[in-house]
Amino acid sequence: MAFTSSNWNLTVVLCIILISSVVAYRRFIRSKKLPAELKRWLGPVLLPIIGCAHLVPVNYVWKKFEQWSKEYGPIFKIDLLGTDFLVVSDERIAEELMVKRAKIYSDRPEMKSLFDSKSSTGTMEYLPLMGRNEFWSRQRKFAYSFYTDSSNHNYLGSMEYEVKRWLNNLIDEPESWSSFLVDMASKIMCQLAWDDPEHSEYLAKSVWGLLTKMSPGGPITNVLTPLWDYLPETINPWKYTERRRHDEQNAWWMLEYLTARQQNERGQLRQSWVKKFLDSEKPFVAYVFYNTGVAHEVEKDDYWNGYLIPKGTRILPLDFAILKDKKKYPKGEEFHPERWLEPGWPTFKEPLTKHPTVVGMSSFGWGRRTCLGQQITQDELLVACGGQRFQRPVVRYV
C-alpha cells in the first residue's frame, strides 16, 4: 500500500503529539526517582523533548562519541528523545559493568524497528538481539558445546578457496580491500553453512539492511517506541518499510529451505560441514555475527561510584575509543607487531604458544553477550593473512 500525502500529514501530527507526551512523561518519572545526594552524569547539554539527538550525526557516530568521551570522561550520558544511553570508552569500566555485573547487564533493548527483535515469543530470528530469556539461554548453550572445541574442527580447507579469490581481487584492486574483505568473510560463512558461497550476494544486502535498522543512528522508532506501537500500519512508514524487508527475507529463507529439502530427497545435496558435526553429536548454530554494535540494557536499578544507573538504561561500549587507549596500546597509530611478542609492552602475554590471539578482545563483546565464533574468526584471519607476502608494497605503474 502506497503512502499518500494525507497519510504523511496525519503521521506527522501524531508523531509530534506522541513525541511531546512520551518524552515529557519519561523525564518526569526519572526526576522523581533521582535522590539529591547522587552524582549527576556528565554529558552534552540537553534540549527539551529531543535531548541531544540533534547533536548525534547519522554517519560516523562513533567519532562524535569519542570526541565527547574526551570532553566528559570515560563514561557519560546521552539522552536521545527520552531514552538514556551510557557510553563507555574505558575497558575497565566496561568489564566492571558488563562482565562482573553481567547478571543484570546482559539484556538487550528492544529494537522497535524490527518485529519481535528480543524473541519474546520464541521466533529467534535475530540471535544477537534476543533478550535474556529462555530462548536465548537455550540456543547459546546449544552453540557453546561446539565453539569451545572449534579449534579441532576441520573447516580450514573450506576457507582456502575464498581466501585465494580475495587475494586475487586484492592484487587487481587494492583500493577496494574493505569491500573484498566483507565479500570473503560472507562467502566463507555461506560455504560452511549451505555449501554455496553465492548466497552471500543476497545475504550481504540483507545484513546491511538489518544493521541499519538496529544501529544507534537507525530509525527513530528504536528510541521513541510509541511511534511503532500505536501508529496503525497504514500510516506508519517505519513498520510498512520493515514489513516489506522482513517478508522478503523470510521468503528467501523458505525458498532455500524447500530447495535444499528437495535436493536432499533426490540425493543431490552434498553433506554440509554443519551436518557433519550435528551427526557426530557436536551441536552447531551459525552464531558468527556482528555482536558488539548492540547496546546492553540494565534489568534493574544499579549504582556505580555514586551514580544511579536506572533500569532500562542502555550501555553502549565504544570499541572505537577502547582500542585507542594509549595506556594499553601506546603508539597505537603505528605498526608495531612486537607489541604482542616482547615483554615491556602492555599487551604482551605468555605463553607465546597461545598468545597473541584475537580471542577475548573487546571487539567480540562483553560478558554473557560475547560472540561465540571467536575461534572461527581468528582462523579465518590467519588463513587470509598467511596467504600474503609482506615483502614490498604494491606499486601501480601508469
Automatic annotation (TrEMBL):
Residues holding heme: 371
Record has Membrane as a keyword: yes
PROSITE patterns to which the protein is assigned, alphabetical: CYTOCHROME_P450
GO molecular function: heme binding; iron ion binding; monooxygenase activity; oxidoreductase activity, acting on paired donors, with incorporation or reduction of molecular oxygen
Keywords: Heme, Iron, Membrane, Metal-binding, Monooxygenase, Oxidoreductase, Transmembrane, Transmembrane helix
Pfam families assigned: p450
Transmembrane segments: 6-29, 41-62
Cofactor needs: heme
Family classification: Belongs to the cytochrome P450 family.
UniProt name for this protein: Cytochrome P450
Species, as recorded: Alternaria panax
